[in-house]
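Collaborator request, handled under Task 6.
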Amino acid sequence: MIQKENLIKKNETIESDYINITKNSYDIKTILLHKIENEMSLPIINLNSNEKLKLSFDDISDNLSNLYLTIEHYNSDWKKSNLLKSEFIEGFEKDEIINYEYSFNTLKNYIHYEYIFPSENLKPIISGNYKMKIFDLNGDTIFSKKFMILDNKVKIDVNIKKATLSQDRKIKHEIDFIINHPNLNITDPFSQVRIVIKQNNKEDNAIRNLIPMYVRNNSLIYDYNEENTFFGNNEFRYFDIKSLRYFSEKIEDIKRDSSDYLVTLFTERKRSFDNYSIEPDINGQFYIKSQEARNSEIEAEYVNVLFKLNSDFIANSQVYIIGEFNNWSADDEYLLEYDFKQNIYNKKICFKQGYYNYHYAIKDTSLKHLDVASIEGTYYQTRNNYEIYVYFKDFNDRYEKLIGYTKELSKELF
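Structure tokens returned to the collaborator:
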């Protein structure tokens, strides 16, 4: 890694749900935020620990820039906390991202940036939800990324099972759990405690604001029949572009010209009426890897991947590719187009070499979340990760603390 000279730019910023994409000047790809020792981990570390997060991303515009980072504190609903920065930051309010490398021996040039957090200059001093905000010399936000600081005070016992209600038993998971808090005084659990349950770390279908069904001694019991259920959906589809020298299982063709690669996947179909089939997956995540590279972070190629879904046209709806790679969001970059002559949805999307899980999803204005089941199917046997977050706000507190977290896998519920 090397340091860079000051470069001044003027940019125009466009806001989106997860990333603020800066027009013309930047083209940010492959944003990763995880524990430094585990690329597949969620960005959550313990308060006042030695644990570190690693932020990395690429700018394929290949323009070197002065970039900076700050953090912002949020409550459980991702509304900004009413705190001064000095109340949750130790050190400076911002820090410069000085570590970068140019891509090496790739068709498409890019600059790879990295930042290790917390740093000597910027540390969080309270628990809760946070966002890292990356901005340029003009103060224009380029993107933000969520992470969490945990101050563990409780123990969470989880039981994942087939849904209790008969109409849901074949298609949904039920998440029952108990919060044990022997060392924490909770006088009013109905107002002081906030719960968030996520499936594969997705925000759009997260369950929020459940209150305990029973309160016993130092235990809060959440044992519902319907309010705590998720559609199981289906195991994830995948494609493997770790090597561009041979066709992996899902690849129909690979073409290369002087400036780009095009990887064409086999035409796919809906799975909503199939029987459940066990498929190995990584629950919507991805990782970067080039089999021919010594350092995949700067030697992996960026390639265009062509998706094709055989389907009748779905009226009044839009079809997207979603996964951890795009924060499960309905971004225009991942919106499929319909070809009425071939009766397929298709889209060419840029990815860095690696291994990717994904689903097709429908955006319907009548639903608050993206509809995966209509294309992918939904089955109780599907293996998903479930994350439970416990927040606490005492009567005199001005923000919500993250006091509990657990991650559990729905094992084979046959």
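The cover message to the collaborator said: "The helical segments are 189-192, 296-299, 373-376. The first strand starts at residue 12 and ends at 14. Please let us know whether this matches your experimental observations."
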